[in-house]
Amino acid sequence: MKMELEQDESETTNMIPVCNCGLRAEMRTSWTKANPGRRVFGCPNFGKKTRKFRFFKWFDPEIDDRPRVVILGLLKSKGAVEKARKKERAIWVIFLAFLAYLAFFRV
Ligand SMILES: [Zn+2]
Q: Where in the chain are the domains?
């Protein structure tokens, strides 16, 4: 069982492409509107000004329109929930600070 696992790991390691610069590509997840959640192999130096290090290869196939719209919708609602939670937390902080003020000055 353990042997199988190690074999799987080495297979995965062998799958990782190596860039022209000699570094092993890193797997990242894109969160752009065109490719939300799509995994990509890229050079760790990708995005830096040096033109030489531009290895970039999609790992996942292209996302169909329907799942893409669903993912973007979920991300949008997740963002709205997080925003609401932050606001709620800020209100609590103000409220607790106010209570502390009352307790301290025994108003
Ligand atoms: Zn590179």
A: 1-62, 64-107
